[in-house]
Amino acid sequence: MVQKAKILLVDDRPENLLALEAILSALDQTLVRASSGEEALKALLTDDFAVILLDVQMPGMDGFETAAHIKRRERTRDIPIIFLTAINHGPHHTFRGYAAGAVDYISKPFDPWVLRAKVSVFVELYMKNCQLREQAALLRLQLEGGGKTPVGDKGEPAGLLAELSARLAAVEEQAEALSKQLDDESADAAAVATAAHLERKLTGLRRALDALEPGAGPGAASVPTQN
User: Fold this and answer.
1) Over the chain, what is the mean pLDDT?
2) Which of 10, 61, 89, 104 is deepest in the core (most CB within 10 A)?
3) Cross-strand partners of 9
4) Interior CA angle at 25 toward 101 and 1, to 5°?
């Protein structure tokens, strides 16, 4: 079973949260509500999120301050933030949103189809990264075992290597399709950069896996760092 991604919705108005849930329910992911910046930061302490939809105008800790706290934490600094605002103070206001670490800045009322499409891109990138981490963990176990883990009848790791290679190939194929989709749709630069980073990590993992194949010779195959 594929675990669903979590999407954090932050807005002090219940009707806005309800509207976001209605728009994003078609993505079939886990939607988590937060009615304040403080509540959002508390949720981020325990759960991992694919993307955050953050209202700018909130009493107390506003969206800009909340984003600043998110970006200061090592655990959450790489989570994409999409700012939502009911007002538009011009380029300076928008620039402040990007400076706070947002990947996008959308003014209300927004097009539900556009918002859903933007969120779906970051959800898909998140899922690909989760798959990549799983493959890297399996490969790391194989490397730490010195390639001597009994798998087949003769105690050879060929079965595990074949399974890892097949799983990695599936992720590579999906990542390639996603990159082509981003190019075709002229997507946000942040999404394109994230996809490119994912492909680089996939390439490193593939090289490490190839180094374990019989006949590859002794070498220090290393698993790529997961950043």
Assistant:
1) 78
2) 10
3) 33, 53
4) 95
